[in-house]
């Protein structure tokens, strides 16, 4: 069975993954596969730093703008769609280049997830009712039932907590006892990690958030709300959008909203780095992906390890 090359560009938000992915795709005749859980949604562009079509240099991008904001989407569904896309790209004798910072999606794609029961809407409604009455109740319940699973989920991530509880209650067993997941096969994976200096990264993130607020994020959010997108839609829980909604509903002034978004984004970048540091076989580069010297080092490394008929 032929094995195809697969390149992963990982790292924290703001580290230059998109630019590096473009450079790598150009060099290795690749197509880019999004691994950002928010860029999947249509209309959420500015706050997710989504590349505009005219900035993609003619390189095909996959799994971007595939869902309406109100649609639910899980890591398992991402893995299913993503694996189909990877095989389509390989079938064209092109190289898939995965780029994004949603570590759980990446793990689901490469390592698989333990198969679990289908959603039980009645159970979910009951659990959500409990959460609305006492915020944080679901994570506390999960901690009592499956401490290991709870430790892997941020207490504020209601969606992941809900699914973990659903699995635990429906299967009557902790996650550790579930069936073994099915790993991605047929690909040789090369993982690139970006780890820029922390203070430089935080400075870039602060500047990017302020620029988003000044250059159209407010209009984007107003437009989404005018289209009827509910403020409870999952993408509105994300960094920048959450704070913009608080500003638009007069719960924060503009400077407070920007500062809150900056603080939350710095904390998120730190959590991303912690997550990716636990991943196996990542080749780390200490810089930003849009630094030409970093791009050259990454491409030089990949050129030394990848062998594929259409790559010269």
Q: Give, in spatial order, the strands making up the sheet with the most strands.
A: 3-2-4-1-5-6
Distance N terminus to C terminus?
23 Å
Count of helical stretches: 12
| Pattern of helices and strands | EHEEHEHHHHHEHHHHEH
Q: Give the total of domains.
A: 2
Low-confidence stretches: none
The CATH superfamily of the largest domain is identified as P-loop containing nucleotide triphosphate hydrolases
Helix content: 40-55%
Outline the secondary-structure elements.
Blueprint (H helix, E strand, L loop, with lengths): L3 E7 L6 H11 L2 E5 L26 E2 L12 H17 L3 E5 L3 H9 L9 H13 L3 H9 L1 H5 L6 H14 L15 E8 L3 H17 L2 H10 L14 H8 L5 H24 L4 E4 L6 H14 L7
Parallel strand pairs: 1-4, 1-5, 2-3, 2-4, 5-6
Helix pairs in contact: 2-3, 5-7, 8-11, 9-10, 10-11
Question: Could you walk me through the main structural features you see in this protein, from its secondary elements to its overall organization?
Answer:
48% of the residues lie in helices and 10% in strands. With 312 residues, it is α/β, with parallel strands linked by helices. It has two domains: 4-113 and 181-305, P-loop containing nucleotide triphosphate hydrolases (Rossmann fold, 3-Layer(aba) Sandwich); 121-177, Histone, subunit A (Orthogonal Bundle), CATH 1.10.20.140. Strands 3-2-4-1-5-6 form a six-stranded parallel beta sheet, with helices on both faces. The mean pLDDT is 92.
